[in-house]
Amino acid sequence: MRLRHIEVFHAIMQVGTISGAAQVLHISQPAVTKVLQHCELQLGMPLFERVRGKLIPKPEAHRLFAETEKLHRDLQGIRRLAAGLKGRAVETIRLVSTPTLAVSVLPQAMSAWRRDFPTTRCELATHHTGEIVNMLRLGEADFGLSLQDPRHPGIIAEPIAHGVMTAIAPPGTWRDDELAMPLSPCGLQGELIGYADNDPLGELVVAACEAQGVHPTFHTVVQTYQIARSLVEAGGGMAVVDPFTAASSTRIQRRPLDPDLGVALYLLAAGHAPLSHGARRLADCIAQAARACTGAHGAAP
């Protein structure tokens, strides 16, 4: 199928008639008919049933439409980009982050960045680290944020902030004079909220406990640190979270751990795609916001 075939086919699938497709594409009805006939001739099969002036898609047409819809969206994006370049529009920055960082670090960073880039379009999405890597490799995002280094050969992982994992608990769990005192793994016994088995920071916490003879049992298991913190805020137990999640709430108590469990915030990018000026400045604002969190609550150098 040629590009013109796809445009005409997509328009017919959307409106269901030759006349409607002609209006959508701003061409004549005979031109639409001619392109459709040529498309079906090349494919060697009809795509529509002609019923009382309407075109009823055959099953093959529906299958084809599912794929051409993706291309149609890409073409629209190309047209918008071309129009923007012609009009000297500002760039679009596509950032994908883990859910926890999107809530704990990004709001302050975006607010600071917007002061210098008030009209730049920024598209924010949230995914887990594996999906972030795939999006970067496919060119679907400019850079990503994660608390994990994926150690992928095609991805550059740049640590932009460091901190330590932090124990959090509902208000009143610890005395005020205990809050600055490091908490040993023994102090984590009880209603400790756990993480899914594939969470590397959760595994780090479990390993630290087991190294001191503590074998935690989790009655509640979650996928994100943000959920764990929300449960703690509601009085649903104790948790160990990253420093950024711990710093973004005033409805919990915090204590450092003994021993320290270091964690880094990584900026992820495809090795073949350098960041634009706007994206680099946004990354700098994110780093500053993250360091403000860890600086206030026990940053690691």
Automatic annotation (TrEMBL):
Domain of life: Bacteria
Species for this entry: Pseudoduganella dura
InterPro entries linked to this entry: LysR_HTH_N (IPR000847), LysR_subst-bd (IPR005119), WH-like_DNA-bd_sf (IPR036388), WH_DNA-bd_sf (IPR036390)
Keyword Transcription regulation belongs to the record: yes
Keywords: DNA-binding, Transcription, Transcription regulation
Similarity comment text for this entry: Belongs to the LysR transcriptional regulatory family.
GO MF entries: DNA-binding transcription factor activity; sequence-specific DNA binding
PANTHER family associated with the record: TRANSCRIPTIONAL ACTIVATOR PROTEIN LYSR
HTH lysR-type domain segment(s): 1-58
SUPFAM superfamilies: Periplasmic binding protein-like II, Winged helix' DNA-binding domain
PROSITE patterns to which the protein is assigned, alphabetical: HTH_LYSR (PS50931)
Keyword DNA-binding: yes
Membrane-spanning parts: none
Pfam families, per database record: HTH_1, LysR_substrate
The protein's name: LysR family transcriptional regulator
Gene Ontology terms: biological process: lysine biosynthetic process via diaminopimelate; positive regulation of gene expression
